[in-house]
Amino acid sequence: MRNASARELGKKRGVVEPYQTKKTVSGQIEELRETVEKYCSPPVILLGHSWGAWLVYLFAVGKA
User: Fold this and answer.
1) What angle do CA 55, 61, 64 make, to 5 degrees?
2) Is 32 exposed, middle or buried (0-12, 13-18, 19+ CB in 10 A)?
3) In terms of Cα–Cα distance, which of 13, 5, 7 is closest to 52?
4) Residues 44, 18: contact at Cβ < 8 Å?
5) CA dist., res. 27 & res. 55, Å (int)
6) DSSP string, the chain
7) pLDDT grade for 64, boundaries at 50, 70 and 90
8) Which of 9, 19, 22, 62 is the most buried (most CB within 10 A)?
9) Using CA atoms, how far apart are residues 43 and 27, in angstroms rounded to an integer?
10) Do the beta carbons of residue 28 and residue 20 sit within 8 Å?
């Protein structure tokens, strides 16, 4: 279920809230990459909170 922030963003932009299933950091980064490639078109803005923020950072700097 989308949270209030996602609903607000979704009024003007597409929003994807993937559910992470992998148990390793590299697995979650790869899973995020696959989701972005499948469902997004550039430019892509990634947002996260707590662990999600770290995951987005690691994804952006290519630490797979």
Assistant:
1) 65
2) buried
3) 5
4) no
5) 11
6) ---HHHHHHHTTS----PPP--SSHHHHHHHHHHHHHHH--SS------THHHHHHHHHHTT--
7) low
8) 9
9) 24
10) yes
